């Protein structure tokens, strides 16, 4: 596990500071987009579950 962490950090050794910052900006944007999509998917899932629960309750009564 330690070797994997070391490899991860040294894989950026060939980049200069500017390139690392640019890559970090890109990664931050990607993470932001993924988190936004995940939040939307969770909201849709919650709405669908509520709808299903309401239908099940109506079917029982």
Textual characterization of the structure:
There is one protein chain. The chain is mainly α. Helices cover about 85% and strands about 0% of the residues. The protein is built from two helices and no strands. It has helices at about 1-10, 15-60. The chain is elongated and about 65 Å long. The termini are far apart. The mean pLDDT is about 90.
> Which structural class is indicated by helix and strand composition?
mainly alpha
Average pLDDT number = 90
CA-CA gap between termini: 56 Å
Main beta-sheet annotation: none
Helical proportion? Answer: over 70%
Rg calculated over all Cα atoms: 22 Å
Low-confidence stretches: none
Summarize this entry quickly:
Helix content is 87%, strand content 0%. The chain has 61 residues and is an all-alpha fold. The protein is elongated.
Write the layout of secondary structure elements.
Elements: H1 2-10, H2 17-60
Keywords:
mainly alpha, 87% helix, 61 residues, single chain
